[in-house]
Amino acid sequence: MEKEFSKEQKYVLARKRVEKIAKFYKHLAIYIVVNIFLSCIFIAGDMNDGDSLTQAIFYNNNYKIWFYWGIGIIFQALNTFGLNLFFNKDWEERKVKEYMNKNDYRN
To answer: Residue 55, Cβ neighbours under 10 Å: how many?
Structure first.
């Protein structure tokens, strides 16, 4: 059953959706900038402790925050865009046509 919305209700729903998407992209930008900054600080600290640049760059503990915060980003992306981010209607239709052509399910 499909609900009928007035123009004002549609506008409010669309506005909330856009705000949610904007909030996600702001969070993603902050994630990237802060993690680059922190990684640089960690690498510089390791170099001060006597590691070479290569050792400091490839030290896994410097990137743990990317992983754990990234999990939060993934959940926020799924909350914002839903599973349609990966499997949208276009993808479904393309797969149906592909299997129909591949396996001759045509009438």
So the answer is: 13
CA 87 to each of CA 14, 75, 84, 98: distance values in angstroms, whole numbers, following the listed order: 22, 16, 5, 15
Question: Using one digit for the tens of pLDDT, what is the confidence trace for 59-72?
Answer: 888 899 999 999 99
pTM for the predicted model, two decimal places: 0.69
pLDDT digits (tens, 9 = 90+) for 29-49: 999 999 999 999 999 999 999
Query: 3-state class of 87 per DSSP?
Result: coil
Pick the closest to residue 85 from 97, 100, 102, 73 (CA basis): 73
**Side chain identity at residue 72, one-letter code:** G
**Strands, E assignment, the chain:** none
Question: Do 27 and 73 touch, CB atoms closer than 8 A?
Answer: yes
